[in-house]
Amino acid sequence: MGYVTRLPVALALATALALSLVASAGSPAQASARLSSGYGQVGMDPLEGPVGITVQVGITLAFSTPTAYILRASPSGNTILCDNAKPIPGAAPVIINDQGGHGEFTWPAALGPGLYSVCATPQTGTGQTAYSQQTFTVLDPNAPPTIAPIPGAEVFLPISGVVTGTPFDINVMNWPGGQRPESARLVAMQSPPPAGFNLTGETLSFDLSPTQPPGGYNIHTTVPNDVPPGPYVIAVEGGGVSVHTNVFTVAEPSVPAPIGSQPHVQSVPLSTTMLPTGLLEVMVAGLLLFVVGSLVHSAIRQRVVRGPLAPEAGSERD
Length: 318
Fold this sequence. Notes:
- The chain is an alpha+beta fold.
- It folds into two domains: 10-138, Immunoglobulins (Immunoglobulin-like, Sandwich), CATH 2.60.40; 154-251, Immunoglobulin-like (Sandwich).
- The chain has helices at residues 10-24, 28-35, 277-306, 313-317, and strands at 40-45, 48-49, 54-59, 67-75, 94-96, 101-106, 114-122, 130-132, 136-138, 154-156, 161-163, 167-173, 183-188, 202-203, 206-210, 217-222, 230-238, 241-244, 248-251.
- The longest helix has 30 residues, at 277-306.
- The N and C termini lie far apart (128 Å).
């Protein structure tokens, strides 16, 4: 089994450290003094792997002068606190400055499969301890692989109702054992079942086609015309397996009304409120043009009938 190393946690740790320094509102030395009253954090990436995997670490502490911290690991649930546990064999000290600290180490064989808490303490003297918020899981290479459970067979109708005589499809998923569905029975959910309907269900004829493996099929079938309306399920069976679909409703096909019984449709006169806006504007403009044209035409006719205008007084003397 291969393991892919994730992206370094340095960026996330640097961001958290920057926020802490902004909150301190002072010099690196003042930030160190304020952080000394709490605890730092140890980030790890990845959080699981076998012995020999490279683990990257980041510590969210800040000091005005470089300070060496050593990494320790304690089995999860151990009565010995992490800061009193033995240093991780082969892990180099992590140097912390005003920007925090980060490094990496190879998980040693001395710390076998299990869960571990990781912390960091000053290499010399006393001081603030940084703790990991999550445990590191050392995987056992000899452990049997985890087998995912096989999902059960599923049979369902993508619709909630069907009409007698109308074809429809049934979706089948995860049909087990490499077998194929062999039969489909229409089972009434009414109690008691409709008169004349078989208590164990009516066998349906169908076409079977494979879909997405494994165990995926499509059943194309039809409810007979003589099946009474009501709620039903379909039992799909084969290879010793019987699975019911979801409940659906069977309905009779709708019958169109006779021609003589068609409802009377009353004609409604056209009104301006029923016309589209564009057509109404065109009609109004046309009406205005018609009125203006009529007035001009009438004026011209009156002038032709009366003849030329009488001369003016001054012109008459001339």
